[in-house]
């Protein structure tokens, strides 16, 4: 018989990891080479073949570098779609749909017009990626140390949610200035064509406030998005291996694992886009209009207006999320960073639950 309080805690935990049940655990089977299967998207690096210590300054720095590549490159690659999405949000009377938005933009500005805002996009989202992935690793270890081994295991999904939310708080402060510049360039034809033109003009008109007035809506958009991005990705990977992939992950090749990663990332991205889209609409309009507040913009858009451009954003965010996980994991493999295996129930907790003699 399991101890009542611990049993109820584990079963009642609303953020408990999927597939968790209080049953006697069997030791995981050893894969070829004597390594345990790992739940990471790219191929695992053996414990003996690592370039730095887990949780070291070098580890955090390289994780941050992986975040720079994953976010900076992917967001810059979809600038044309992002431009059309922003214009759908701020001027729905002129831009009727995704296809119409592309056609009108090319007709007025040529093909080069689709690349407007690429520089602030690359700089801003590179800084965001540095903080998002780098601080996520920092906060994940920090919160785990605060919780202790047993609570870290029981509440590990809650830990992922808390760590990602904390990291995104700082990531959005780093992103906000370049996001404001990007939206101004993309949504106000004739205002400025380049980063160098837009920054001094915005500063002269509104001062530093021009670059940070959208940070609160950014938090409203990005923090739920990032929490969904990490939690949903982990759950989707597990469900794909359980119900879709016809063989255990340990028997899948590296290429097959990466396909699962991409699919899981895309599915997570769809949910991310839906959760964060209303705030994204507010940010786009807020950065276009001088002197407006988030509450004024929200009232102006109304319940229907905040969902304009959702299809374009689902396509963009789904692709971005899938590629970001792929790039981030690949960077960690390339630099031979330590990659701990999935958490296992601590021996002390097994004894309390009566799972061991």
Automatic annotation (TrEMBL):
GO cellular component, one term: mitochondrial inner membrane
Pfam families per UniProt: Mito_carr (PF00153)
Record carries keyword Transit peptide: yes
Catalytic activity: phosphate(in) + H(+)(in) = phosphate(out) + H(+)(out)
Family designation: Belongs to the mitochondrial carrier (TC 2.A.29) family.
Originating species: Fundulus heteroclitus
Solcar repeat windows: 58-142, 155-239, 256-334
Predominant localisation class: mitochondrion
A GO term, aspect molecular function: phosphate transmembrane transporter activity
Protein keywords: Membrane, Mitochondrion, Mitochondrion inner membrane, Repeat, Transit peptide, Transmembrane, Transmembrane helix, Transport
Compartment list: Mitochondrion inner membrane
Listed transmembrane segments: none
The protein's assembly and partners: Interacts with PPIF; the interaction is impaired by CsA.
Function according to Swiss-Prot or TrEMBL: Inorganic ion transporter that transports phosphate or copper ions across the mitochondrial inner membrane into the matrix compartment. Mediates proton-coupled symport of phosphate ions necessary for mitochondrial oxidative phosphorylation of ADP to ATP. Transports copper ions probably in the form of anionic copper(I) complexes to maintain mitochondrial matrix copper pool and to supply copper for cytochrome C oxidase complex assembly. May also play a role in regulation of the mitochondrial permeability transition pore (mPTP).
Record-given protein name: Solute carrier family 25 member 3
Membrane topology type: Multi-pass membrane protein
Superkingdom, taxonomy of origin: Eukaryota
GO BP terms: mitochondrial phosphate ion transmembrane transport
């Amino acid at each position: 018989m399991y101890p009542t309080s611990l049993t109820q805690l584990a079963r009642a935990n609303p953020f408990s990891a999927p597939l968790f049940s209080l049953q006697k655990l069997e030791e995981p089977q050893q894969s070829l080479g004597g390594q345990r299967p790992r739940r990471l998207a790219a191929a695992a690096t053996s414990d003996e073949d690592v370039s730095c210590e887990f949780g070291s300054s070098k580890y955090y720095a390289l994780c941050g570098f992986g975040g720079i590549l994953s976010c900076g490159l992917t967001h810059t690659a979809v600038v044309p779609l992002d431009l059309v999405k922003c214009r759908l949000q701020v001027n729905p009377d002129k831009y009727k749909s995704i296809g119409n938005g592309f056609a009108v933009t090319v007709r007025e500005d040529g093909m080069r017009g689709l690349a407007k805002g690429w520089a602030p996009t690359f700089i801003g989202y590179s800084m965001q990626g540095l903080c998002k992935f780098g601080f996520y690793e920092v906060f994940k270890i920090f919160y785990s140390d605060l919780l202790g081994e047993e609570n870290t295991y029981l509440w590990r999904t809650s830990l992922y949610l808390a760590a990602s939310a904390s990291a995104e708080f700082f990531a959005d402060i780093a992103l906000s200035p370049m996001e404001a510049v990007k939206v101004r360039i993309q949504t106000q034809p004739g205002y400025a064509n380049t980063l160098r033109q837009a920054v001094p003009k915005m500063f002269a008109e509104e001062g530093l406030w021009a670059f940070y007035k959208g940070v609160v809506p950014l938090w409203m958009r990005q923090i739920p998005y990032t929490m969904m991005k990490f939690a949903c990705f982990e759950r989707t990977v597990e469900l794909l291996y359980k119900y879709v992939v016809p063989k255990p992950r340990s028997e899948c090749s590296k290429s097959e694992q990466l396909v699962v990663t991409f699919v899981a990332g895309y599915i997570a991205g769809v949910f991310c886009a839906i959760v964060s889209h209303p705030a994204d609409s507010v940010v786009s309009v807020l950065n276009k209009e001088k002197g407006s507040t988030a509450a004024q913009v929200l009232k102006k858009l109304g319940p229907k207006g905040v969902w304009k451009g959702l299809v374009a954003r689902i396509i963009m965010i789904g692709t971005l999320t899938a590629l970001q996980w792929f790039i981030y994991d690949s960077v960690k493999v390339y630099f031979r960073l330590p990659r701990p295996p999935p958490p296992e129930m601590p021996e002390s907790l097994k004894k309390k639950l009566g799972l061991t003699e």
